[in-house]
Amino acid sequence: MDWAILNNLLTIVISNLAELRRLLGFWVISIFLLQGCGSTMNPFDMRIIEAMSTQLSDMFVADDVVVYEKEELDALKSVDSIPLKWKGKVSENEIASFYAVYENEALYVADEAGKLTKYEVATGKELWQVKTKHKFSAGVGVGDGLILVGTFKGEVLAYNESGHMLWQASATSEILSPPQAQNNIVVVRTVDGRIFGLDAIDGKRKWIYQGATPSLTVRSTAGITLAHGAVFAGFPGGKMVAMSLFNGNIGWEAAVSHPRGVTELERMTDITSAPVVNNRLVCAAAYQGRVTCFAINDGTQIWARDSSSSAGLVMDNDYVYVTEDKGIVAAYDLLSGASVWKQSRLGSKRLTRPTIKGQYIVVGDDQGYVNLLRNYDGVLIARSATDGSMIQNPASPLPDGFAVQTAKGGVYAYSTNF
């Protein structure tokens, strides 16, 4: 049996829980796999498939159904709308990792069709568009004057702010998340568990780190965070690593979460989002695990709280905000980890990683809504619809608002001055 096929299918199912209800049942998937493997299954393999199908049904199908009271739905409809400044359009995105990114009075947007577009952030005017022959898998990343995108074939493309290509480099597999640049180093992460450090001048490889990849993982767009001359990255199995930005040497490793349970599915505790960093702490969240904060200098654990997040977290001077599973946004005290508030009634089970914009927390959802929460108590302040398609990635802060990109390719810029 080709276990790679099974692993990929399971991770897609797990990371797309909202789609699970559309399936006829996991046994249909199992039958498809048996036919596609081209070989006869032995009884042991059959028992594994049966156990996995039962567990997936127990873990996800029942829990994914939420019944909202009429009063709660009416409350969502009655909140103020977020003022829309302008909107644009790029190509649709099915599985790639795209973030609309603000840099120097402009908004940069990439899409799966291989186009990179620059908008004037004040008006939404399209300033230029680069059309390539590549299929983009991740973008946009910025830093050191570079506009960066990655491809499904493992290529990293670097442009300047005028849209001229500066260089192209190759990694070993699909670029998993938007490349990042700092101190003349471009850092990219690939789907095979590697992290590459590239020279920002010409794209030549300077170092490489190989992370462990368990047999069963959640497919994600887990990014990396660059800060204080270091690279912070989380991995499947709940491990977080701090390494030198300049040579890739490991400074410290720490466990955000430990696997628990008997089966492989129960023991999955992957870090599927980028860590967040300030001057003292680095924090990360794990799927089916915990949110944990460590001392930035040596990785000493400061606090940890049980949590499950496949979307991610952000922090400000007071709180750590986590988008937890089942449509919950939670705030924890930054110093102690004490629970401050939880918001669970936003009408969706799949929310994006939070974005901080002034006094607001911005989250998008799989129905194309953007929500503004008050930072100190989680109260829903305003809410607006986009084009009805999923917002997969967090909002990008703008000088006077934020922007989001939808799965259908909608680009929406909103104002928070209201």
From TrEMBL:
GO BP terms: Gram-negative-bacterium-type cell outer membrane assembly; protein insertion into membrane
Localization per record: Cell outer membrane
Matches recorded under InterPro entries: BamB (IPR017687), PQQ_b-propeller_rpt (IPR018391), PQQ_rpt_dom (IPR002372), Quinoprotein_ADH-like_sf (IPR011047), WD40/YVTN_repeat-like_dom_sf (IPR015943)
UniProt entry tagged with the keyword Signal: yes
Primary subcellular site in the record, as a coarse category: membrane
Annotated keywords: Cell outer membrane, Membrane, Signal
HAMAP family attached to this UniProt entry: OM_assembly_BamB
Protein name: Outer membrane protein assembly factor BamB
Organism: Nitrosomonas supralitoralis
